[in-house]
Amino acid sequence: MFHRWGPYVLLGFGLLMAAATSGVVGMDRRDWYVAGALVGAGAALQLFRGATAGARPGPSPASVAYYALRWAIAFVLTWINPFFAFYAVVGYFGIERLLPSRLVKPGLFATAVIMSGSQSGGLPPDEELGWVVFGGLLAVNIALLIVFAHLAEQEDRRTREAAATIDELERTNAALQRAMEENAALHAQLLVQAREAGIADERRRLAAEIHDTIAQGLTGIIAQLQVVAGAQDAGEVTPAREHLDRAAALARHSLGEARRSVHNLSPAPLEHDRLPGALKKTVAEWSERTGIRGDFTVTGTVEHLHEEIEATLLRIVQEALSNTARHAQAARLGVTLSFMGDEVTLDVRDDGHGFDPLAPAERTGTGGFGLDGMRARAERIAGSLTVESEPGGGTAVSARVPLVRHEH
Questions:
Q1: pLDDT band (50, 70, 90) for residue 363
Q2: CA distance 382 to 401
Q3: Burial class of residue 346 (count of CB atoms within 10 Å of its CB; 0-12, 13-18, 19+)
Q4: 3-class SS at 305?
Q5: What SS3 class is residue 402?
Q6: Residue 365 — very low, low, confident or very high, per pLDDT cuts 50/70/90?
Q7: What is the pTM of this model?
Q8: Could you say which of 93, 124, 155 is where a domain stops?
Q9: Given CA atoms 353, 359, 364, 369 in this order, what sign does their dihedral have?
Q10: Pairing of strands 293-299, 332-340
């Protein structure tokens, strides 16, 4: 706005001030003819510049000629009347748009000459003192130009840095936006995967629970019924009744465990006892049912373990006992629960005929949930399970899990 209309306003104001001071300055008729012609020329020059400036923005030969003609008009007008310096001051503004960089300083110096002449009382200076005053004012104007140029350069540098920072922030924001969109898509994908993993994990849990409860219960029921059949063939009524009662108890127990598995509740033995007591009762009941001697031992300082740890170790023992009853043909079995610092170990050893660990199908029984199921249970709580066995040398199953205390 200033570059378009400022020269008109300053030229008009300079003309008014010249008219008001013409008597003081001593302008005659000839001076007014020249001044009037130059004012008209300045206005025409500005009109021409306004019409052609948009065609070629930035420094060009036309803009250099425009600046030179405007300076010449201002110089002559200020020579006639110092108050025309109001028009000459436009030479300080927008000079970078009009002159190439190598001519900017000479252009500013030329404008400073006009301003210094006006401030010293008009051009040309009178006598030696006038030239001294003119020289001093010129030095002051040049010093001010240097200071203002330095400040303008600093401001321009800050502007460029701010623009670069804004560009960088825009790029960063764009990158963050893309990252957020990618994260949203990844989050949706992870939710789907987590849901699928949860479904698969729940299926594995139910399969293992069914194997540890219903399958083992059915196995025990079948064994009792086989004994009943043998007793009936021999005409023994009392033993048959006892085994039928055991089969019914196993059926009720298996039904209860199945219900607890579906609702993901703790195993029945842990409902009223902590792990050592539950293991002791489980081994005793298994020994009574199978006729195999079973011993249970606890070592170390007993800790109140997390429910998941206790349930996992109990299920491992139940599976090991079931495998021993079905496959080992053992006469003796020992279960040892050890609390050792930051971990718990569980060892189940029997004196059965053993097997080849490289052929686990011989001991896994139904559905492949035997040793593999025990190992999966241990790994699910960041533990491990090892099996040592050889044909004729018995079997040792050892589970090591972290000691995670019960949360009160």
A1: very low
A2: 7
A3: buried
A4: strand
A5: strand
A6: very low
A7: 0.44
A8: 124
A9: positive
A10: parallel
